[in-house]
Amino acid sequence: MTPDRLSFAGYRFPAEIISHAVWLYFRFPLSLGMVEELLAARSIVVSYETVRRWALKLDQAFVNRIRRGLPRAGDKWHLDEIAVKIAGEQHWLWRAVDGSGCVLDVLVQRRRDRRAAKRLLRKLLKRQGRPPRVLITDELGSYAVAKQAIMPGVEHRRYKGRNNRAENSRQPTRRRERQMNRFKSARHARRFRSSHDQINNLFQLRRDQVSAAEYRAEHARAMATWASVSDIAAAA
User: Fold this and answer.
1) What is the pTM of this model?
2) Which of 74, 168, 193, 205 could form an S-S bond across to 99 if both were Cys, CB 3.0 to 4.6 Å?
3) Which residues, 6 or more positions from 134, have their beta carbon under 8 angstroms from its beta carbon?
């Protein structure tokens, strides 16, 4: 496999089936077993373990392509952190979204302190290549300390319980955590969330803000982009 072209050589199933299975797993709150059943309903006999291996082998290649094709992130970043149980221990899932709800990045840490907040901001700056115009967080003091050290010139707005953009982005995380009976390790949580969020960024559709025809057109464009990302056309 190269960065510019995916290789499906050696796979028993065609690229269309592999791509569809990976899309189902990351796009919807489905377990591996549920994906296996959905494929079986279409007379495609594949085990959930095979779906798991497909996801592990291909997710990062798909994510890298999606990131390259998405529009530049907005200049308003919303940051938030939520507690998650991993192997019986509490961790913190830090996340950042832009003004349109597109997930910029995630970070899994054991602590909820200024060091973790600084690490998130550094990661975001490296990924985005520029600081935001406005940073919106809750009233956790770690954000203010980290912001002053990493990006002192950025406007910082702190709202207790009003950072709705970031808080609403928690919901898919909670649904997937329940479906998967919690994450098995911090690495598992970090890798899954990264793939899940970037694939879902591709399908940030404005269902309640556009007409039915416009929504269908947006959905068709998103599916066409996914087909391009997963090299379905090239493999056909």
Assistant:
1) 0.74
2) 74
3) 75, 76, 77, 154, 155, 156, 157
Structure tokens at 135: 């940073």
Q: At what angle do helices 114-128 and 141-150 cross, to 10 degrees?
A: 50
The residue written with tokens 């507690």 in the block is: 83
Domain 76-188 sits in CATH 3.30.420.10: yes
The span from the first CA to the last CA of the chain, in angstroms, equals 17
Taking the C-alpha atoms of residue 230 and residue 28, their distance in angstroms, rounded to an integer, is: 17
Domain boundaries, the chain: 15-70+203-235, 76-188
Instruction: Give φ, ψ of 136 to 5 degrees.
Output: -115, 125
Note the maximum CA span of the chain.
58
Contact 17, 7 (CB under 8 A): no
Within a 10 A sphere around the Cβ of 143, how many other Cβ atoms? Answer: 23
